[in-house]
């Protein structure tokens, strides 16, 4: 359990809060390229309790305050022009840096516009997601993580709205033991569908991952520090001689990286809208094959309503809970989409989980390790110190690679080396990740 003041410290992300200052010092997803309207690429967004408007510039993207400095009018309805957004009320024009560059109703000789600048944040597009830097000073360089350096045709990006605090979503993603229960099928998963997590066979077992983890429900969990944050091992004893090894990661401060079948991995960020709602953003990448983006997009869109990307199954309809399905098919009774299972788990805790009354066990090692890291980082950053996964130079950014995420099997006495060998083999066979003659290195 946590003290109340610590629970507040790691959940409150508004402007000026200790957590908010830390999160703003990292690049954060602000929107999907695919969600920006083609005829008028302008959209109001809310991130960490700030109301902003995202729009297409002549080159790149602009992100500025949603409200005009003049009389507070909503700029998300403004006229998109070549040089920026023009307020509908009196014609003030703002560029992508938030500077007012025209005030047509003011006298021609007026220099008033030079005094006007609204909140603005730089943006960079990476594999279908528009990232923004909302911190002080110059933004850090992007790390060489797989999700950023994979060729665009091998990736797919999406998002979803969850009605709870960001940390609940993140902690679900770094909890390796819940998959044995929350995502279990009473009968075998009936789907053979492209892009469905847990539906692929784990290489060398003849079993889908959903069945394998359901049968082996008491993994040994090990957690180690890494340059990107944390590396988490869930080790399941399959036979007297063979283990299943699942390697996942915390990508500090608010993302995780998990394997998705034998050749795929995804990175997922949990980004506060405010303290009681957040978006998850995902970049899904394939080491072996070009992604079928259209199929993946249509599958995902079937489960949400636009423009907010709110899941069709949600608190208002009890997440589609069906007691007969719970008895006969799925552990949750909430359909086949495991995103809904995760959503229910974290939303059902309430908007902000009360961690002062929880009781954590050995299976929660990754959750407790992350909380300790997050609390230390908040204090260290406030004091001007270094924090994890925060490069200050191009050299440091280039050294942040992976993170490595893997599902494999191995002999009891060889699992520590076998998963690295398997990762090396996968990368050497990849059209884009191959480094001839190189082996994967794992930071301590």
Architecture overview:
The structure is a single chain. By secondary structure, the protein is an alpha+beta fold. Helix content is 21%, strand content 27%. It has helices at 4-9, 18-24, 146-149, 166-173, 209-215, 293-301, 323-328, 338-347, 365-382, 394-399, 415-428, and strands at residues 28-32, 42-47, 50-56, 61-65, 79-81, 84-86, 93-94, 100-102, 120-121, 123-126, 129-132, 144-145, 155-162, 220-226, 229-237, 242-251, 255-260, 264-274, 277-286, 304-305, 310-311, 401-402, 406-411. Strands 13, 14, 15, 16, 17, 18, 19 and 23 form an 8-stranded antiparallel beta sheet that branches. β15 and β16 (242-251) form a beta hairpin. α2 crosses α9 and α4 crosses α8 (338-347). The two termini are 28 Å apart. The model has no long low-confidence stretch (mean pLDDT 91).
